[in-house]
Backbone:
């Protein structure tokens, strides 16, 4: 059984068909790309899967559990985490807090514990902080834990966002244009980082990206959508040679 | 060795300072060194601290705009006042006291808690629309709640309607007859400490930091595993409950009455002014501004009505000079690191576990 199964996902914004009959089977450990021209509905699909929007029709299942109708934090707790196209860190909070808060759904202490600060609370908080610092070290951010998120350079903010997503302990990681605004050097680092966390955390990754060198380099399978509909699916080589894709999307870049 | 010792000693500096303040204020009032006027000022100061620190949770930490805090204060004031009068005092409406007057001493805090719980339940009224609305619209809703509470009280003849509710003075006198100590100041002092501890501890926990995540980016908070509805309900209920506690204390002020006219939008505005003056998201800022604002009101009393010309003017100047309030969103210990060295607890100065 696939880890993430999406069936006939459809979303209408009033009369606008943003996503139509989208299907996907994401097997455990896969790295799959989602591409398409601007406004094709890629981010909308992520929003539907993570519960930010409620689909008009269709099914999303993680490991056999139905996700449609759950609230976003419940879906995150079940194992889907994401990053955002434009960075959405909690700017006026420290990097450390940004990571710790993402563990909210793993907190076992109760509300009275959070006010009385008993032994159990202190142990768990220390554990949360230690884990967060460990995670930040993986991203080379251990020196910046007490820095406000807004004060970090752009590339570091991108990394904090990925670290924050990992702090939720996901099984599936959705990356929404992680390379946006990065220079070629930073992109190389990002690719290495994605490969590394995929190995270390046993992740299944689903990535939206405009930069062809990212998508063609790391994805095993690519899905192409245009105007909310799937127009092609296959390996990077197949996609590059698919006339429909070239017409809809790559054509502009190829010539 | 020695360093360890000073570190454990330090843990007691802040509680000791608080204890000293308690002894000075309560002792001074008990020995009548502080006259009745100053006792009253201290009482209002304390009540304002509780109101300001509690409202800061919503308007400062969470970044919402609740402007009906006086409504929740009213609920606490009436529920606590009615309870103590019904239980411990002779009253026209409620008849003879249900319990012997001496029981008022141990049961007074129970009545305060009952008022706080009632106010926090009304706080749910605000929490629920806050799931869907933010900013201006939520401000209008909280304003409406303030009016609803006030009008509801005005239309309940049993508890005095617009004329107000009396009888709390008899309760306080009964307590003083058993043991003559400044009971109300004692409970206000304890109320302040409880309020500060609740807000400080909650906002420093990972669960409570969800409140700040909501302020910074609510959608990201919900998507990154913060149960925003639960956090909002908790924050509103805590904040409104503590406003109810302040109300319960206020109901027993030496004047001996409460009337709905006290809990208008003006009172709510006053609390908001103290929050913004002290700095959003700063507990020490709230305390400083509540103390300062209460004193300012008293200092300018000779000016009569002109007080309300001078105070807003001072506020305008203040906001021009320091738009983020006295302390911004920092605490006193951030501004004066030396204070942290003296009073700082281990929790705040977190360092990653080495070796």
Residues:
């Amino acid at each position: 059984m696939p880890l993430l199964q999406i069936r006939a996902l459809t979303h209408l914004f009033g009369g606008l068909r943003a996503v139509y009959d989208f299907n996907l089977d994401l097997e455990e450990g896969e790295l799959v790309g989602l591409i398409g021209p601007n406004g094709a509905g890629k981010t909308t699909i992520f929003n539907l899967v993570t519960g930010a929007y409620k689909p008009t029709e269709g099914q999303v299942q993680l490991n056999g559990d139905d996700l449609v109708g759950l609230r976003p934090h419940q879906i995150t707790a079940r194992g889907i985490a994401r990053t955002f196209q434009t960075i959405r860190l909690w700017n006026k909070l420290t990097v450390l807090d940004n990571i710790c808060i993402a563990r909210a759904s793993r907190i076992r202490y109760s509300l009275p514990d959070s006010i009385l600060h008993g032994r159990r609370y202190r142990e768990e908080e220390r554990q949360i902080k230690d884990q967060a610092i460990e995670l930040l070290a993986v991203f080379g951010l251990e020196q910046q834990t007490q820095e406000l998120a807004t004060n970090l350079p752009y590339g570091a903010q991108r990394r904090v966002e990925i670290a924050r997503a990992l702090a939720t302990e996901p099984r599936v990681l959705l990356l929404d244009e992680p390379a946006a605004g990065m220079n070629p050097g930073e992109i190389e680092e990002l690719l290495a980082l994605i490969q590394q966390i995929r190995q270390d955390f046993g992740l299944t990754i689903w990535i939206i990206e405009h930069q062809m060198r990212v998508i063609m380099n790391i994805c095993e399978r690519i899905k192409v959508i245009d105007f909310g509909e799937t127009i092609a699916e296959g390996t990077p080589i197949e996609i590059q040679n698919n006339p429909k894709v070239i017409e809809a999307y790559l054509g502009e870049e190829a010539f | 060795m020695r360093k360890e010792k000073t570190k454990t000693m330090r843990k007691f500096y802040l509680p000791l300072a608080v204890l000293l303040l308690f002894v000075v204020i309560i002792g001074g009032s008990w020995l009548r060194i502080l006259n009745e006027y100053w006792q009253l000022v201290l009482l209002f100061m304390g009540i304002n601290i509780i109101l300001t620190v509690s409202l800061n949770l919503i308007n400062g930490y969470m970044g919402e705009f609740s402007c009906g805090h006086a409504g929740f204060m009213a609920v606490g004031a009436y529920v606590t006042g009615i309870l103590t009068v019904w239980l411990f005092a002779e009253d026209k409406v409620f008849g003879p006291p249900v319990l012997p007057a001496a029981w008022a001493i141990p049961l007074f805090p129970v009545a305060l808690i009952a008022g706080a719980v009632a106010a926090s339940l009304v706080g749910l009224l605000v929490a629920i629309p806050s799931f869907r609305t933010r900013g201006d619209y939520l401000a209008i809703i909280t304003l409406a709640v303030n009016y609803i509470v006030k009008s509801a009280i005005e239309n309940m003849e049993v508890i005095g309607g617009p004329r107000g509710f009396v009888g709390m003075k008899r309760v306080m006198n009964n307590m003083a007859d058993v043991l003559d100590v400044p009971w109300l100041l004692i409970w206000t002092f304890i109320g302040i400490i409880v309020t500060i501890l609740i807000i400080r501890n909650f906002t420093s926990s990972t669960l409570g930091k969800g409140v700040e995540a909501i302020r910074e980016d609510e959608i990201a908070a919900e998507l990154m595993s913060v149960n925003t509805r639960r956090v909002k309900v908790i924050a509103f209920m805590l904040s409104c409950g503590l406003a109810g506690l302040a109300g319960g204390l206020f109901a027993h002020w030496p004047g001996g009455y409460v009337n709905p006219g006290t809990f208008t939008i003006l009172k709510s505005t006053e609390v908001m002014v103290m929050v913004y003056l002290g700095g959003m998201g700063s507990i020490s800022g709230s305390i400083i501004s509540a103390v300062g604002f209460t004193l300012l009101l008293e200092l300018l009393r000779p000016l009569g009505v002109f007080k309300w010309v001078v105070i807003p003017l001072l506020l305008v100047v203040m906001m021009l000079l320091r738009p983020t309030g006295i302390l911004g969103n920092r605490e006193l210990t951030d501004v004066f690191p030396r204070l942290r060295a003296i009073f700082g607890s281990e929790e705040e100065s977190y360092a990653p576990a080495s070796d």
